[in-house]
Write a structure and sequence with these properties.
With 294 residues, the chain is α+β, with helices and mostly antiparallel strands. Helix content is 30%, strand content 27%. The strands form four sheets. Strands 6, 9, 10, 13, 14, 15, 16 and 17 form an eight-stranded mixed sheet that branches.
Length: 294
């Protein structure tokens, strides 16, 4: 099994800002995003990692970024270490396949979420009042039901803990009317194209979240795009509304953790080898289905 990269150390490049999964290096004019194999569940980063996860997330993001370039620009400058600054070449073994050299943009402080099916917090909200983020939906929908017209449900970007869903009017107050309308339109266009493509591959994209930035007064898409960490992918063949669906992501990890006597606060427990292996295979599988590559 492939070596697991939990964190990167490149002393002469500087100290990174570490997110749950990414190590971000400031290179002056650019940023270097390194996608590690760290895995988080219930907002806790677990002590071990999932082999190959960072490479899968990177490959899937690049695939979608390229597909959507006629809809919206993105932050990618280079995906191959040979095209990175010379100082990074000696770290090729760590960086290859899991890093992107990207443009610096002013991050829009809102997560752009689109839901095509009722799941997760959307399903919970619907059960309470028949709406998701204030958007009324038809009565009688089940868990995992298709939403005929996908809904745009933005959220705040929390530095710690859970993001909070907000009404579209609240988003307008945060980013301005024009930017809010532009982001809503782009998010829905990207989702609809990806949904139609994935459907032909036997995959349902139930929901996804996106991040945008502003560069030279233009909106671009940043961070990651339509990965198993930012989306719910379900099998068309196995899809059955009325229950939660089997997902192509870290659901295996979540399900295992729910069997433990763990209060979902740090430190997280070690994952047994069979759970790690199954999760790694699941990530590899969705990459293969969507892009045809390993």
């Amino acid at each position: 099994m492939e070596k697991v990269i939990l964190k990167t150390e490149m002393p002469d490049v500087g100290a990174p800002r570490r997110g749950k999964v990414r190590d971000i290096y400031d290179l002056g004019d650019y940023l270097l995003l390194v996608v590690t194999d760290r895995v988080s569940a219930f907002d806790v980063v677990l002590p071990g990692g999932i082999p190959g996860k960072g490479k899968v997330l990177t490959a899937i993001s690049v695939f979608w970024f390229r597909m959507m370039e006629d809809i919206v620009g993105n932050h990618i400058i280079a995906t191959d270490v040979k095209d990175f600054p010379q100082a990074l070449h000696k770290y090729r073994e760590t960086l290859e396949g899991r890093s992107l050299l990207v443009k610096k943009a002013k991050v829009v402080p809102v997560e752009c979420i689109v839901r095509g099916y009722l799941s997760g917090s959307g399903w919970k909200s619907y059960r309470e009042d028949g709406a998701v983020c204030g958007i009324k939906l038809p009565a009688g929908l089940l868990e995992s039901s298709k939403i005929e017209q996908p809904v745009f449900t933005p959220s705040t970007k929390a530095e710690a803990g859970h993001d909070i869903n907000i009404p579209f009017d609240e988003m307008k107050k945060i980013v301005g009317d024009n930017t809010a309308l532009k982001l809503k339109d782009l998010t829905l266009k990207i989702y609809e194209r990806a949904r139609d493509y994935a459907q032909k591959k036997g995959i349902i994209i139930a929901d996804t979240k996106m991040e945008f930035g502003i560069l030279n007064d233009q909106v671009i898409i940043i961070d990651e795009l339509l990965t198993p960490d930012s989306s719910r992918f379900w099998s068309v063949k196995k899809y059955a509304p009325g229950k939660s669906q089997d997902s192509f992501d870290k659901q295996i990890v979540r399900d295992y953790l729910l069997t433990l006597d763990w209060d979902q606060t740090p430190p997280g427990p070690e994952l047994p080898p069979d759970i790690v292996k199954k999760t790694s295979e699941r990530y590899q599988e969705i990459l293969r289905i969507l892009t045809g590559t390993k």
